[in-house]
Fold each of these.
Amino acid sequence: MKIVMLGAPGAGKGTQAERIADKYQIPHISTGDIFRANIKAGTELGKKAKSYMDQGLLVPDSLTVDLLMDRIGQADCKDGYILDGFPRTIPQAESLKKALSDKGEALDFAVNVDVPDENIVARMSGRRACPKCGATYHIAYAAPKKEGVCDKCGAELILRDDDKPETVANRLKVYHDQTQPLIDYYTKENILHTVDGTQDMEKVFADIVKILGA
Ligand code: AP5
Ligand code: MG
């Protein structure tokens, strides 16, 4: 099963993708997580990506597409995967489509987690992330058992650099300009499904499972 998750920054793509990956036993691939891991490791890619991410801009396709193609070519992806945060532009979607069709494959589902801009800022300012294992929390909606500490690995939780309100506003603008057109794109491909992302996390997950099939 090959799935892409669409949705504004903070819509809950990562939260849901993690659960779906677990339920269907497929890898969860987040380009944002890959860039953050590179930033943390101090790689050249990380240095380049950080300068864009800190401004709320997209990392150029030239740095993103090969990285993703490489990842989905790995052995653990042979039975499918869930992509979270890729594609984010029409050229990225076209590159993915071509790479798959060259192998006689295609995406099965594009799941759009729909959350209006008004809800996004509150979500982002309350989000806490684990810099070690990547787990995501929210101080009000999904709090860790012990404040400021990751339930899964015990590391100290942080606020992401790009979750400052002024950067969030930029990310939303970039989303509407460059990523939202993918909703039409995947509607035309006949694989788009939209879920109401303002519901609680369990309900959003149940709606997605209905689409993907149990
Ligand atoms: P990326 O890491 O993908 O960030 P994003 O798309 O901005 O999305 P987020 O991770 O912020 O939100 P999410 O939808 O995963 O929400 P979450 O589940 O955490 O990308 C970061 C940057 O990397 C980009 O800006 C760009 O620069 C670069 N980049 C990445 N991919 C790229 C690409 N393909 N091309 C170019 N550049 C790329 O949830 C948010 C919060 O809300 C959490 O606290 C969560 O607990 C809470 N929450 C979730 N669901 C609910 C709910 N139902 N009710 C209440 N709270 C909820
Ligand atoms: Mg995410």
Amino acid sequence: MTFSHPVKLKPGDTIGILGGGQLGRMLAMAAARLGLRCQVFSPDPDSPAFDVVLNATCAEYADVEALELFANDVDVITYEFENVPAAAAMILAARRPVLPNRKILETTQDRLAEKDFVKRLGVGTADYADVSSAVQLRAAISRIGLPAVIKTRRFGYDGKGQTIIRDGDDPDQVWKDLATKSAILEGFIPFEREISVIAARSADGRVECFDVTENEHRDHILKFSHAPADISDALAAQARGIAEKIASALDYIGVLAVEMFVVASAAGPKVLVNEIAPRVHNSGHWTLDGASISQFEQHIRAIAGWPLGKPVRHGPVTMTNLIGDDINDYEQWLTVPGATVHLYGKGPPRPGRKMGHVTQVGALPPKIA
Ligand code: AMP
């Protein structure tokens, strides 16, 4: 079954969210402000999103009966992570509208399919090659050159499943260590900065982009974002145009994030697309306190069939992620004038685990690393 009629929720209706992490939690909180209920589906009993909803389903994504019961309880289904198993999405989509459309997952779960899709749109990416053996890796290296980045095609996030290959590295060993059957090799991009665009698209095809965000990673994990990005208006317009093109080509409903590199070229700086996230995104957390409408509210509005907002930024905004033991400083952050603290209610901090974030609106504050 497909749902050709557009979704139009009323206050009091229920949104099903697949995934119970902080993104699901912040989506549910935004929905609540608009008078909408959420039911969260997650296999993890300690899901931070469970804390903010009345109804939760704690079951595996392979549990067909649980999926069916969940679908029956809700009016529309969305997700907070891109690795939703295809079989689960299919079962749900037979019962309720799944937004963004589950077919989008096929493109964004596979780095090769994603890069091919972006290239077909005429949008720039790093040079890349499909690699499924050490022999192919050697061939790809001779075409693309070194340094290069090898990434598993599936299930990579926060730098997991990827390695930089440099001159002198042994491709056979790199391939063995990656322990995958399918990967892509990308040329290493000597970027000037990393940026992202958070875009929302409604069922009637309207797109609203937030101001371009500039991102800084530490150990492959996002540490700081600030908006607006320190780039020219023309480049920002180009970046937003790319995100809009991607959202429209996917016939997307909801919020997506497009991560991009800014690189120097003879004609001035240009942008290359690194990755598409079919969901709300960490680099858009500043919108919670730094704009009139957050990325979470935009997503809820889009999947509810409600009009999108026109987000107005309140000033320069910085977002600092509290990662692992950073969470131990939360009391200090609570005393910083102008800082808004968000804690995700997660269990013990582990290295690399996103535990919370802080937003600061106004003159860009000094960074606390
Ligand atoms: P990804 O998992 O693709 O989002 O990559 C995580 C981070 O690794 C990016 O935000 C970049 O900092 C870095 N990275 C990924 N791909 C490349 C590349 N082709 N060239 C240079 N840096 C990269």
